[in-house]
Amino acid sequence: MDNVKQIEKDFRELLTEQNAYREAITLIHWDMRTKIPKKGVEQRSEVVGFLSEKLHQIETSDKMKYFIDILKDNTEDEILKKTIEDCEETYERNRKIPHNEFREYVMLQSKSESVWQEARENNDFSLFSPYLEKLVEFNKRFAGYWGYENNIYDALLHNYEPGVTTETLDRVFPDLRKSLTSLLERIKQSTSKPDPGILTGFFPKADQEAFSLAVLQEMGYDFTSGRLDETIHPFAIALNQNDVRVTTRFDEEDFRMAVFGTIHEGGHALYEQNISPQLAGTPLSTGTSMGIHESQSLFWENFVARKEAFWERHYDTFLKYAPEQFHKMPLNQFYRAVNEVKPSLIRIEADELTYSLHIMIRYELEKALINGEITVDELPGLWNEKMKEYLGVEPPTDREGVLQDIHWSSGDFGYFPSYALGYMYAAQFHNTLKKEINFDDHLLNGRFNEVREWLTRNIHQHGKMKKPLQIIEEVTGEKLNPDHLVTYLTSKYSKIYDF
Amino acid sequence: MDNVKQIEKDFRELLTEQNAYREAITLIHWDMRTKIPKKGVEQRSEVVGFLSEKLHQIETSDKMKYFIDILKDNTEDEILKKTIEDCEETYERNRKIPHNEFREYVMLQSKSESVWQEARENNDFSLFSPYLEKLVEFNKRFAGYWGYENNIYDALLHNYEPGVTTETLDRVFPDLRKSLTSLLERIKQSTSKPDPGILTGFFPKADQEAFSLAVLQEMGYDFTSGRLDETIHPFAIALNQNDVRVTTRFDEEDFRMAVFGTIHEGGHALYEQNISPQLAGTPLSTGTSMGIHESQSLFWENFVARKEAFWERHYDTFLKYAPEQFHKMPLNQFYRAVNEVKPSLIRIEADELTYSLHIMIRYELEKALINGEITVDELPGLWNEKMKEYLGVEPPTDREGVLQDIHWSSGDFGYFPSYALGYMYAAQFHNTLKKEINFDDHLLNGRFNEVREWLTRNIHQHGKMKKPLQIIEEVTGEKLNPDHLVTYLTSKYSKIYDF
């Protein structure tokens, strides 16, 4: 027993080392995406490579294995038990890949990303396809090493959404698609359409920033544990529990980019800022999955900041910063405009309704790729066909089509479904939360604190102590159910589009 | 021979590791001084502690010793030879200190800094004095471990200004003091005094920043290898040769803080940006000493940016950003005002002439402390006496006296002289440079590039390949000579103060 206590102590020391590397690497990533001068990048990449290798060495070390083997059945500390589970999974998954294959893959990833950028710039898929083929091959091989029950793609999905399988997705996605496309049809046929044109026009960056900061503050984002910076691709990043940063992008012709972007990233940040301090320093001190993380950002972006009640409360504040043109605009016209639905070519510009359709296309294609049912060369054509079928629009070139996302170039197969899961999770949480607290009333009165506390109590605090589907079931009392998203969207858009 | 080549290769790999830790630590320091949210500091300190320990382990490793022993006499690569010398010195100096004493000292340092802050806030030297006593004790002991020829203080001085000894300082400082105080006397008696009051008044931060950036640009600071940020205590920092950052502080009531501060730090940054790329990745890729570094910042701050010719060239640019009040101000009135001399209590607010007097006081006191000639308790009284004697002003409390500087609280004994050496070095470089290029003419025409190139050719590029006094002698053809500073100041102030 005394011996176990000592081993636990030694194990915690190893976690501290692991954590130090992770935190240093994360700071470098934040800096590389926000501040680093152009010429500093090359040398900094070497540094991050070195530190990542060190981290990888610890994760797969014999020392780690020793702690796992002993503490797995002997520790009585619940947090340590889960920590050991997490470390074991990382250890096993990493050890299953031969070291030389892993190195080769890391080099391929970094090369592929820059080739993809070039291919996108030149609108030439053929530049990228040989790399994509290799990436697919590696991922198939890794999936084989990791193992799976029914579908090889499940082994990859597991990296981003443990517990969710193709079986689940193939159950919910087709129904969801049917509902979304029929809703989209009614919206298209509506004669009462919002006019998003009224939202564009010069809106100085400083004023957008001031309003974004005011909303972040009200959401309960803790500025003594975070900060907002400018970047090209907005993100939220947790360096540690008390340093969770948000970035945003300003478009002086369209305030929506910065305002909704900041709120979205703020939702991610609230998750990381409110994980239980008891988990600090363990690998459990982060969001439990990409999908649950996305549910938090989408909750704030859509279920809060695109709601009528939110704007009833905040329109005056908004007008304090907004340029002239908004001052004569009735609230309802503004509210409808920020909720326009319009099928578009680019995923990251998609609205709440069509977004999930973009995801399904990617899911179907990458699943087929990994299962060897289609080839890389067939991708651009299939992409365009599906866009036409699901969204009714067709990319004029691959740049607006198959080349638009970075994910595949980084080898991130299995990642995309998390985005659509995030929408469904958020809607399901929203449905439960509405029954437990007077949500609209809280929004009208700016009592975001109680909303944030509900999310913290039910989701944030647990970090990786609970798996995604476990959280869904415990919080909402049912399994993943896409109906909540459909009901929510139907009710929302029938009012906006008057059908 | 082939064997040596292989060992050189392995050694370079160790240098790469060492460098990766150093770069990660430096980024954390930059972030902690500019961006980190308050609550993130505690955990980040742990991370920096861990990484510093790793770096220290490499520097003092048996592996390092192995490379030193073999390559010292066998490498034919000049850069490697110097690198080995540098690594050997670091190895020897660190190994001479018993590990437990070093750990104890590091903890004392970090504790002392916060106690000093508290003492300064409460204006209570007695809080700080027990810590200062311990710091002095440790430094005496370390100096003993390191060894010295004549004066124990030389062993500490060596950390900041290798090659310079108390013998040198005791030769140059008294003469310099005599000259400076007599010059100060004449200035005091002058009836034609500049009026610095005309310089203060509201000057928006954004405009100060725009002008500072314009000057940095013209100095040849490379913004693709650097950036300017805001901070409380301005500094320049080299993460790598292609990422050398500058920070500044804005006082909207007094533009001098930001403008001269940025130029000063820009001078440090130019040094680090222009070290030969051949030295990249070795410990030689940095300024050769604190004094030479300071000579570069002071050169740009005083010998460029406080010169008449500089303002003749830049006054129009300045007026583009400056508020109304400056638009009716004759250039000469402005020039004289930015060159006011006035004995003051605070070192970092001192002018070009009195600054070195502040340094001499600190030097004399810390040398006496380390030599056991005075006690810590006597410090405040002696400080005030010397202030009165050298500068004619007396601190009303210790906050404006002995408690003003952070250096002693970090155990940095032997550091202060570098500042005064920097002034003397800069004046000596200036004297040589004037003979070789048409300096005033270059300033008048904004041809800073040729000035910067002269400094790069003679100083910057060498990094630590040359020792400070070696550079002085090679560049100026003579030993350290304080007369150049005196001549320069006399000529400058006799014009400004009309004597």
Short description:
Two copies of one chain form a homodimer. The first copy, chain A, is an all-alpha fold.
Question: Any chance you could write out the topology, listing elements then pairs?
Answer:
2 copies of one chain form a homodimer.
Chain A: H1 2-34, H2 41-59, H3 62-74, H4 78-95, H5 99-122, H6 125-146, H7 152-160, H8 166-189, H9 205-219, E1 228-230, E2 236-240, E3 243-248, H10 256-273, H11 290-304, H12 308-321, H13 331-337, H14 355-370, H15 379-391, H16 417-436, H17 439-444, H18 448-458, H19 468-476, H20 483-496
Parallel strand pairs in A: 1-3
Antiparallel strand pairs in A: 2-3
Helix pairs in contact in A: 1-2, 1-3, 3-4, 5-6, 6-7, 8-20, 9-10, 10-11, 11-16, 14-15, 14-16, 16-20
| Mass-distribution shape of chain A | globular
Classify the fold: give the CATH topology of the largest domain in chain A: Neurolysin, domain 3
| Chains forming the largest contact | A-B, 35 and 35 residues
Give the count of helical stretches of chain A. Answer: 20
**Chain-averaged pLDDT of chain A:** 96
Description:
Chains A, B: Its EC number is 3.4.17.19. Chains A, B: This is Metal-dependent carboxypeptidase. Chains A, B: It catalyses: Release of a C-terminal amino acid with broad specificity, except for -Pro. Chains A, B: It is an enzyme of class 3 (hydrolase). The structure is a homodimer of 499-residue chains. Chain A has helices at 2-34, 41-59, 62-74, 78-95, 99-122, 125-146, 152-160, 166-189, 205-219, 256-273, 290-304, 308-321, 331-337, 355-370, 379-391, 417-436, 439-444, 448-458, 468-476, 483-496; strands at residues 228-230, 236-240, 243-248. Helices cover 64% and strands 3% of the residues of chain A. Chain A has 499 residues and is mainly alpha-helical. Chain A has two domains: 2-95; 124-499, Neurolysin, domain 3 (Orthogonal Bundle). The longest helix of chain A has 33 residues, at 2-34. A three-stranded mixed sheet of chain A has the order 1-3-2. At the A-B interface, helix 1 and helix 2 of A face helix 1 and helix 2 of B.
